[in-house]
Structure formats: C-alpha cells, structure tokens
Amino acid sequence: MINTDRLLVQVLLLLLLVACVWVMLPFASALLWGAILAYASWPLMRGLTRLLRGHATLAAAVLTLGWALLVLLPLIWLGFNLVDHVRDATALIRDVQVDGLPAAPAWLGQVPLFGDRLVTWWNTLDQQGAAMLQSLKPHMGQLANWLLARSAQLGGGVLELTLSLVFVFFFYRDGPRVEAFVLSLLQRLIGARADYYLQLVAGTVQRVVNGVIGTAAAQAALALIGFLIAGVPGALVLGIFTFLLSLVPMGPPLAWIPATLWLFWKGSWGMGIFLAIWGTFVVSGVDNVLKPYLISRGGDLPLVIVLLGVFGGLLAFGFIGLFIGPTLLAVAYSLLTDWARGQGVKAP
After folding, report:
1. Quick one: 27 exposed, middle or buried, by C-beta within 10 A (0-12, 13-18, 19+)?
2. Alpha carbon of 328 to those of 180, 204, 309, 334: distances in Å?
3. For residue 103, how many other CB atoms are within 10 A of its CB?
4. Is the model's pLDDT at 348 over the cut of 50?
C-alpha cells in the first residue's frame, strides 16, 4: 500500500530541488569556473594557509585578490591598448577618405607573376576609394549592431569572470567542508566506490586544467619570442592576446597571422616568412604535442577518451565544456569498466 505521507514528502523535496536548481542556473557557469580555479590552485591555498598559521579566511582573501590583480590588470591594460589602436584605425580611415590611399609600396610591384596586376589593382582602388566608402555606408549600421552585440557578449564574459573570482573565495575558504559534503553524498548514493569516483573527477579536471593552461602559456611564450625576433611592435600585448586565444581551438593564428601580414606590408619579407613558419610549426604545432602529453600524464584513462571529451564538450557546452566533457566521459568509462569486471556500483 502506498504511503501517501512519504510520497508527499518526496514530491515536495523534488520540487524544492528543482527550485534550487532554477535559482542557481544563471550562476552555473561562474560557479563551475570558480570551482575549477579553486581546485587547480588548491596547493597554493594549502601552502598559503600554512604560511599564515592556519588562517584560512585570510589566505583565501589574499589568494583571491592575487587572482583578481593577475586577471583584471592585463585585461585593463589590453583594453587601453586596443582603444589606442582603434583610434589609429579611425584616423587612417579618415585620411583615406580625404587624401585617398598612399602610393603603392615598392615591394608590391616586385611580387613574382602578380606584381603589375597588384599595382594596377591598388591604383584602381585608390581612384574608386571614395565611391567604395559611399557604397559601404548602408552596411555600417549592420556592422555597428554586430559590434554592439559582441561588446555585450564581452561585457557578459567580464561579469561572469568577476562572479567566478567572488565564488572562488568561498571555495577556498570552505573547500574542505564542500569536499566532505560531496563525499558523504556520493557514499550515500554509490557506496564504497565513492572516494574512487571523486578522485577520478578531481584528477581528470586537474589534468585538463594543466593541459589547457600549460599549453596556452607555452604558446604565448613562443609567440612572444617570435614577435620580438621579428620586431613586431606591441609584442607583449600580442603575447597576452595569444595566451587568451590559445584557450580556444585554432585561436593563436588570429594573433600571428595579422602580425605576419603587417611585416609583409612593411616590406620585411624575410621576417614575415620567418614569423609565418614560426607561427605554423612552433606556436600552433606545440598544441598537438604538449596538450595531449599534459592531459594524459598521470592518468590511466585512454588518451582518446580525454581528447574526445575535450573537443566534444567544447562543441556541446561551449568553453566550459573543455572541463565538463572529459569529466563526463571519464566517469562513464570507469562505470562501464567496473560493470564489465562485475564490480558494479552498489548502494550501501
């Protein structure tokens, strides 16, 4: 016979859980980022807590402030540099409208096979520049709307980053209690294997963080070396930009390809060819070697499982899927392996 009182309590608990998820859903991404950042840097938190003689709250505040300075100051600096470049681009467009394009560079006519044709195209473009700008004016509104939408997305990303830095403080301060709560919940659900699966999730996230951040740092350092050798102005800004672009697939070429084209524009063919080769085989090539090594190091999961999780998670969940995807596949793979061995997941 159905116990109506117990059924009512279960329904109410389910509704309460749904309501809680609904309330927390807008902050889910920021919470995940905060948790990932706190876990990845937990050795720093542990060492700082010991240095401050066990004052966990003070250590959490100091470390969170350090992250805020490390993340926000480069963004502010990069923003000011972008404003300067936008101002220069605006001045260039204004000069082109008034005076037309400058004379074709000497090296343009020396391009094999196509030199004369390129010079002719340059002169034609110069003569028709004003008419071309007039024809583009109706599309400027669409471009402005597109830039406004991208600016709104960027603002949302900055807000999410700020919330993540707020949440990371609480993860630092209450990390042991959160871990104990999650472990007790898993023990209630799946029994003795709870600690194993908790360590599996933690290890997978740690390896992915090491792979993504470590590869991005290596690509940024190599790109900075290439920019300095080639004599590209603003090399440090471009290096920071490369680090940010390295966090997404096929991002670094968006930093070194424009720099290569600028070198060609200035007639520095040798340095342009060097930067193109350096960017293709060194900056972009290190991603194919270093990231798989860092992700697979120290784990017993097949590398293909982790890589499928990284790219599949990126397509399914966006950038946060870099960490969600491999974690889900790792847990599913371990569950299936346990089931195939006859161990299963048994509740207490």
Report:
1. middle
2. 21, 10, 7, 10
3. 11
4. no
The C-alpha atoms of residue 296 and residue 305 are separated, in whole angstroms, by 10
Query: 45 in the Ramachandran plot: left (φ > 0), alpha (ψ -120 to 50) or beta?
Result: alpha
The model carries a pTM of: 0.61
CA pair distance 332, 329, nearest whole angstrom:
5
DSSP 1: -
Q: How many CA atoms lie within 13 A of 271 on its CB side?
A: 19
User: How far is it, in rounded angstroms, from Cα 250 to Cα 309?
Assistant: 17
**Eight-state DSSP code of residue 102:** P
Choice among 29-43, 49-63, 94-108, 326-340 with the minimum mean pLDDT: 94-108
Which of 227, 282, 218, 283 is CA-nearest to residue 260? 227
pLDDT score, position 261: 85
Residue 175, φ and ψ in degrees, nearest 5:
-55, -50
91, 92, 98, 103: CA torsion to nearest 10: 150
Give DSSP secondary structure letters for 319-331: TTHHHHHHHHHHH
pLDDT value for 225:
93
100 sits in the region (left: phi over 0; alpha: psi -120 to 50; else beta) called: left
Angle among Cα 305, 310, 312 to the nearest 5 degrees reads: 90
User: What does each C-alpha distance from 255 to 155, 220, 228, 275, 299 come to in angstroms?
Assistant: 22, 10, 14, 11, 33
What's the rounded mean pLDDT across residues 102-110?
65
Return d(Cα 268, Cα 231) in angstroms, integer. Answer: 10
For the record, the structure tokens of 7 come out as: 């059924």
**327 Cβ contact list (under 8 Å, min separation 6):** 201, 204, 205, 208, 309
3-state helix, strand, coil in the chain (%, to 5): 85, 0, 15
In the predicted model, what is the mean pLDDT of residues 98-122? 66
Q: Indicate if the pLDDT at residue 236 is higher than 60.
A: yes
Residue 120 has pLDDT above 90, yes or no: no
- What is the length of the chain? 348
